Structure formats: C-alpha cells, structure tokens
Amino acid sequence: MEISFDGNKKISTYVDGFHIQTDLPATEQGDYSAPTPYQLFLASIACCVGISIKYYCDTKKISAEGMEISVNTHWDKEKARIEKIDINIILPNTFPPKYEPAIVNVVNSCKVKKQLHPDIKSIININRR
Asked: In what order do the strands lie in the sheet with 18-22?
C-alpha cells in the first residue's frame, strides 16, 4: 500500500492498482469529499459479510437477488471504540428457510469481522421481506 497526501485532509491510498480516497468532515477541518477512514472500516465489514453471503449462495445455487445488508454500530464513549455491531440481513421470501442458520455461520466467518476485539458484540438479525 502506498499513501499520498492530496491537500487539506484528503488522503489517497493505492492498493494493488486500486485508488481509494478518504477525507474528513468539515467538523474535523476536512472537505468531506470522500468517505472517512472510519466509514471505510465499517464498509469493509459490510462488504466482507456481503461477499461471504454471495459466495455461499453461489455454491448452493441460491439467488442473492433482493437481499439487503446493513451494518450499524454502537459506540462506547468511555472506551472510545465500537461496543456492538448490528448486522441486519433482509432475505427475500423466496430464500429457503433451511439455509438461514448457515447464513449466520457465514456472517460469523467474515475475515474482516474476525479482526475485531473479542469484547465487541456482534448481533446478527435476519428478517424477511
């Protein structure tokens, strides 16, 4: 990885030929022209969960169309870190119910999520539409 400074609080990161930009909000003297590093950190968890679920669905020949994933965090002000992460998965009604427990296992196998401190609770909610 290589980092370059692009003016004010803008940072560019180059990873294997990909360009990732970050910035800070105006409240932190940035221009908010790109996601913050913290937002990208949270996005990496959501992306890892998503790709893990997609991979599982592909191996079972189940469509992932219509699925939605959201990740919400709860902040512990005293420890100045995430206290809990809610991973919300909405499955379409066509998703076979017998695979729901496997989806939870797949989410728990996410390599990015596994890097979190063990004290950080992870709540997985599965709902249907």
From this structure: 2-5, 11-15, 18-22
Task: Report d(CA 53, CA 58) in Å as an integer.
Answer: 9
Count CA atoms closer than 13 A to 120's CA, side-chain side. 20
- State the distance between the two ends of the chain, measured CA to CA, in whole angstroms: 41
- Residue 96, classed as helix, strand or coil, is coil
Contact 89, 99 (CB under 8 A): no
The whole model's pTM is what? 0.85
Tokens of 71: 């990740």
Question: How do residues 81-107 score in pLDDT, each as one tens digit?
Answer: 899 999 999 999 999 999 999 999 999
